[in-house]
Each structure stands twice: as C-alpha cells, then as structure tokens.
Amino acid sequence: MHTTSRTLNLGILAHVDAGKTSLTERLLYAAGVIGEIGSVDAGSTLTDSLEMERRRGITIKSAVVNFPLGSGGSALSVNLIDTPGHPDFIAEVERVLGVLDGAVLVVSAVEGVQPQTRVLMRTLKRLAIPTLVFINKVDRRGADDARVLREVRRALDVPVVPMGRVVADLGAASAEVAAFARDDADFGEGLLDVLTTHDDDLLGAYLADRRSVPHERLRSALVAQTRSGRVHPVYVGSAITGAGIADLVEGIEHLLPAERGDDRAPLSARVFKVERGGGGERIAYARLFAGRLAVRDRVPVAGTGARPKVTDLAVFDRGAAVRAPVARAGQIAVLHGLSAVRIGDVLGQEPEGRPYGRVFAAPSLESVVVPMDPGDRGALHHALTQLAAQDPLIGLRQDPDGPELSVSLYGEVQKEVLAAALAQEYGITVSFRGTTPIRVERVTGTGSALEVIDQDGNRLLATVGLRVEPGRVGAGVAFRREVELGSLPPGYMRAVEESVRATLRRGPSGRQVPDCTVTMTHSGFCSVRSTAGDFRALTRLVLMSALRRAGTAVHEPVHRFRLDYPQDAHAPVALALARHRAQPEPPVARGDAYVVEGFLPADRVHGLGRELPALTSGEGVLETAFSHYRAAPAQRARARADRGARAAGSDPS
Predict the structure, then answer these.
(1) Which of 88, 241, 292, 386 could bridge to 411 as Cys pair (CB 3.0-4.6 Å)?
(2) DSSP secondary structure, 520-548, as one string
(3) How many CA atoms lie within 13 A of 229 on its CB side?
(4) What pLDDT, on the 0 to 100 scale, is given for residue 210?
(5) To 10 degrees, what angle do helices 145-156 and 115-126 make?
(6) Which parts of 43-101 are beta strand (E)?
(7) Helices (H), 42-144
(8) Rounded distance, CA 178 to CA 182, Å?
(9) 474-493: b (≥16 Cβ within 10 Å) or e
C-alpha cells in the first residue's frame, strides 16, 4: 500500500464572536505561514476574503488554509477549515462536518457557552468527531476561564479534561497560561476520574493502586479516548496575545487523529463547497478519502453517470491553494471542469464510515426577492437558478400563480448576503419582502385520477392513472407501480416518475408536498406517436387532480425551544411566549433561574429573540431547532369549524 504524509482536516467551530477567525490567524502565524496576524475588525484576515465578510467582521463562507506541524516521519499537514459562527450560515458548517477528521470548538472566556455552542457540540458528539475545546479571550476584561469551564461541563454535557489554567490577573493583556504538569495531583485525579469511565482496565489498575498508574498509561488513554470522541480536552488562552496557543497546537498535533491515506485505492471523495470563478464556471472543493485525482482525469460522479474531465487542479500548501498535477488521499482538492457538480456529490466511491446527510434542520423561513428594475426579472430568475444549482439550500421557489420568486432563509442576515452576491456577481439590485415561514402541503386523504388516450378530451398520446395517499412523516415521497412490468417503455416510465416528483414541489396551494405515496394504477401508449413529453405533461394533470380529490392541508414549521432566564423575569417572559404563540411546558427551577422548554412557530423565533434581552436584563438565553410541521392557524380554524359543523349535523361548506 502506497501512503502519503499524514494529513489532518481540522474544523474551527464556534458561536459568532468567540474568536474563531482570530484563532485561525494565530495558528497560521505560529506555524510560520504568515508573517503578520490579520485583524477581523480591520478586515485583513486570510480566510475572510469576501467583501461582505471584511465589512461585517463575520465569516460567511467556509475557507480552507493549510499549515505544517512537526517534521520528518511524524510531519503533519493540517488543512484548517474556518467555518461561519452566525446561525444564519449553519448550512456552511454542515457541509464541512462530513469531511473533518477533528475539530476545535472555541468558547469565549467572557460570554461563555452560547446557544450556537450547544448546537455545535451536540452535533459533533452525535457524529463522533474528535473535538478539543479552546476557551479564548482570557486577556479580555471580564474573562473567567474557571466559570466558563463549569459552563462547558454543565451546558455541553460532555466529559472534559482541563489541560491548563490562567496564572496571571484575569483581563490583563499580559495574562499567562500554564499547562497542567504531570505531577499536579489535582490534574492527575481529575484525569483518572474521566478516563476510567470509558476504560475498565484502567479503572481496575486505579482501584488496585492509584499510585501505580504511570503517566504514560494515562497519556495513552487520553489520546485514544480523544480520538474516538469520548472525551474532550479543554485548553485556555488568547488568540490575540498568543497565550496558551503552543499547548493547543500540541494537542492538535498529538491528540487528534491524522492518517496516511492510501492513494492507490479506488477514488473516494466528497464535494463540500462550490463557488463560481470569474467566468461563471463552477469550482469544486473536494476532500479525498482514498485514491488520487490528476489533471485531465475523467471523474465518475456517483449516481449521475457523468464523467467530467478535470481541467485544472490545486491543493492547499502553507496557507494558499497551489496548482498541482495531482491530489492524493487526505488532501483537499480545488477542481475545475466539473460543470454540473453540486455540494454533497461523491466522486468515485462512497466514503466508508462517513455518512453524509442533514445534521441541522433545513431552512424554515423564506422571502420574496424583488428586482429594483422590473426589466431584470428574467435575469434575476437566471441568477437565482445558477446560485441554487450550486447551493441546494437556496431553495428557489416560483409562485405558481405569478412571477414572484422566493428563496429559503435561516435568518435575516442572509438577505443582505444574497443581495450583495446578486449585485456583485450579476449586476442585479434587489430588495426583499417580509420573512415568512416555509409551509408545506400534507396529503390528508386518498385520491385517484385517470386520463385515457382519446377519451374525455385527452389529446395527449398517453394513458396515466395515479393514486396518492399520505405517507409517514419524514418518509419522503415514494413512487410505486401497480401496472405490469413492461407495460410502458422504460423511458416513458421514467418520465412519469420524474414528473411526479417535480409536480410535488408545488401542490394545489403552491407548496411542496412531502411524505406521500404515489402509485401508478393505469398506463397506455401509442407505439408510433407517443413521446416522453406526453407522459410528463399528462402526469402533472392527473396528479394534481388526484391531490385535489385526496385533499391537502397547509402546515407551518415549528421549532423546539429551550429558554433560560432569571426567575424575577418570569411574568414578562410568560406573556411574551403567549404573544408569540408558543406552547411552553412548565418551567423548571435551576438555582435562581428558570428553564422552560416547548414549541414555537418558526416565524416567531426572531421576534422572541429580539425581545428577550430587554425582558431579562440581558440574561436570557434562547436556543431553538426545527422540530416538526403542524397545521397552519387557518387550517386549524377550518378543522375546528368542520368538527363543530359535523357535531351540529350541518354541512360545513
């Protein structure tokens, strides 16, 4: 087996403003890749290259840089991926998670654990991604690493091992950090307590004679349990001053898993980022898990049958992407020539043990995009179609009864980013209407429809019969056949299924219809004159008729929420929850605070979050995540009226 040098693909994750991009700059500086540390406030960091990122001081798109650690046979090449911290751009984080070997989760020593910190750690834990925690900004006024360490233990609910402490005055620019020494009794006892939870042999040795457990044995157990994602070492320091960075670098080098990939194995890679070049061409970022890719190679894109040719290629080396003739296992390649590639595409074989799918909820909000110049409407549709092709979560939707275009959103900041992209890349100035929840139509009953060739005005040379019925929530769309195998040529049958899935993107009320089963009950064709186009057109007509007979109801997205707030703010918080149509559970007392969980309509999350600081003197913490869909208010009112009418023996219509 031929192997390359060791490579570690490392993600830097955090809640916004925890210092994630500053830490990236400090790591590059410590490795000698850059000679001067850039500033987020000044817009001079290496990874925030977009004009919007520099202006707002936030990360919007994931960015890759590289730095070396060690030398000789133990040399390590680190591909560091800086990810957005703002919740509006959680989709960028999701795409990166599927290609990581390890992560550093950054927490501010001032603000402590934030809602996004909890979301990220829960996800890292679920995916078993080995993770170090870095408590940053110990040089800031109000920093308290001991308090934040307690928050990490309690709020993140993961086993942690403190690896150091602040030894100078908190808040001082000269704050110093010291790593725990191997002979520190408190450190040794704490380390044993955590490690023996997952290691019965170590527990036995400890119970037999705690003094007989050598430091090397503890170190070996710490490495193994960190690399398996069972424990999380916690470092403290400052990305701005450099305090504690050397210890963190040592942890990255020795505690996180790096492998020597097999570049002679069959190609296995995944695309996690797509951007547009100056000429509008797609540029794909792909992590190679196995095999190799070279310029002029034909690349099989799994599930599509396509084999586009790589026309140019780059890999990351000491900070930047550098053109190269070949990319090998473990590396991240920047690929040109894959004209139809999309985020999530597999190149070659599916990576083993690397499941890829939704780890965060899909966007639950949308907004109508309006061109300032009505003459740009066609150009806007073209631009949004291009952007949606490279980023599936844009979720472009056109009103079935008019020209309006809607896009999916996680939050309000995305509007500004999308408007900037349209202006800079396409020269189109736009505005947005109010943000509304993305509603869906659920099938409520069973309905059938049939159109036969040359009967009842059917001028299309096709016979199609369809039955639609509700499916299990979350099961997606299933297409089945009751017609005999071979009753239709494969091309016509494929046209029917494709048309079914396309039609369900916009049901009778103009919303997506999820979680249903569509069964083909009848088929027929004219062997001489029928075309696939006949079947596509007729399938849409028949399916829409079947949906109307089955009945659909509009449902709105609902989030599960957790709200922490001081007990003396209970009355105004309770009123706010009622005003925002929340369904709270009884509050639970935690010291001098309350914790309440429940459900909240997606379109009320932003409003409640905006009111919370004033209601709780800045101490309230709201954490939400998509939970489910429920019947929209108008549908619930109609259902109540129907039940009342039936009880009274009258016709509700």
Answers:
(1) 88
(2) EEEEEE-TTT--HHHHHHHHHHHHHHHHH
(3) 15
(4) 67
(5) 50
(6) 63-69, 76-82
(7) 51-56, 90-97, 115-126
(8) 12
(9) eeebebeeebeeeebeeebb
**DSSP 8-class letter at 239:** T
SS (H, E, C) 321-365: EEECCEEECCCEEEEECCCCCCCCCEEECCCCCCCCCCCCCCCCE
Give pLDDT < 50 ranges for the chain: 1-3, 48-50, 52-54, 56-58, 170-171, 650-653
Q: Say if pTM beats, i.e. exceeds, 0.90.
A: no
Give the span between the Cα atoms of 562 and 130, in whole angstroms: 26
Q: How far apart are CA 14 and CA 113, in angstroms?
A: 10
Token pair listed for 275: 């951007």
| pLDDT of amino acid 359 | 52
Residue corresponding to tokens 């896009």: 407
Q: At what angle do helices 215-227 and 200-208 cross, to 10 degrees?
A: 160
Instruction: Identify the pLDDT of residue 124.
Output: 86
User: Which has the closest alpha carbon to 487: 464, 468, 513, 508?
Assistant: 464
List, in sequence order, every residue forming a beta bridge with 315; answer none if it has no partner.
322, 333
Q: Which two tokens stand for residue 305?
A: 């049958």
CB-CB neighbours of 72 under 10 Å: 5
d(CA 385, CA 420): 16
Helix (H, G, I), strand (E, B) or coil at 509: coil
The answer to whether 515 touches 488, Cβ cutoff 8 Å, is no
Amino acid 280: pLDDT: 75
Q: What is the pLDDT of residue 223?
A: 93
How crowded is residue 601: how many other Cβ atoms within 10 Å of its Cβ?
Answer: 21
Angle at the Cα of 62 (from 314 to 310), degrees rounded to 5?
Answer: 25
Residue 634: CB atoms within 10 Å: 11
Question: Distance between CA atoms of 571 and 197, rounded to whole angstroms?
Answer: 42
Q: What's the number of CA atoms in the CB half-sphere (13 Å) around residue 462?
A: 25
The label of the residue with tokens 């809607």 reads: 406
Q: Give tens-digit pLDDT for 172-210.
A: 556 777 777 666 676 767 788 888 888 888 888 777 776
pLDDT tens digits, 391-402? 666 777 777 666
DSSP run (H or E) holding 432: strand 430-432
CB atoms within 10 A of CB 193: 12
| DSSP single-letter state for residue 73 | G
